[in-house]
Amino acid sequence: MAVDAARLHVVEHPGRAPATVWLHHGVGSTLAWAAFLPGAAGGRRAIVYDRRGFGRSSHGRRFSPRIFEEDAADLRAILTHLGVGSAHLVGHSDGGTVALLLAAQNPELVVSVTAVAAHVRGDDVTVRTLREMGPPSGWPAPVRSSLVRSHGDDWSTVAGSWHDLWTSDAFRGWSMADRLGMITCPVMVVHDRHDPLAPPLHVDIIRERLPAAEVHWAESGTHHPHTVDVAGFSRRLQMFWRRTE
Q1: DSSP state of 223
Q2: Distance CA 18, CA 245 (A)
Q3: Going by C-beta distance under 8 Å and a sequence separation of 6 or more, which residues neighbour residue 141?
Q4: Residue 42 in contact with residue 237, Cβ under 8 Å?
Q5: N or C: which end of the chain has fewer CB within 10 A?
Q6: CA dist., res. 132 & res. 35, Å (int)
Q7: What digits encode the pLDDT tens for the residues 83-128?
Q8: Angle, nearest 10°, between helix axes 155-166 and 141-151?
């Protein structure tokens, strides 16, 4: 369904409060959480949506270093529109960054944050990896097929615009590290020690600003450690949420 002026595509699974909200990675969509929902919500209400510019939400977005500020504003609008008092946020990569930012800006809206492979500032490792990958039009066929499923016929424009932002000199100076200390809710971090798209330095920064954050390391060598063991990740979420509730 469409929500507010941004025309965000939202899918809901009914359940009890507190609600859970699932935020996809950079060039992902609601499909990124298909293997997890509704089961991983553990009977809680689950809300998953395509961030503006992606999936079935409105395309044509002009990406800028303010992307996460804009995404946090969209998330606030969704929570208000749907009458969610406060929610558990689960975000992967860019989605994890959005979750952390909203928790810093609007603590009253967030029960907890689970951040998987999240970024908290620009870094040379991520930029170098993305530049070596080249434009999305040249990515491996299975990846291109998944982008078509997520974004439709203009997948190359959607993914290309995102890639251009992340590899731009302007974005290298982006940081939200100074706002991490404003987060008051429980935070769980899931990160791979060998992630080529989010080096461990991001966890180091989170730990420095949020010493109480719960950190779980993976050794899969991927940017998607939560997908290696869906059932295990879901159980870890349930345990974390029960402690916070």
Answers
A1: S
A2: 9
A3: none
A4: yes
A5: N
A6: 29
A7: 999 999 999 999 999 999 999 999 999 999 999 999 999 999 999 9
A8: 110
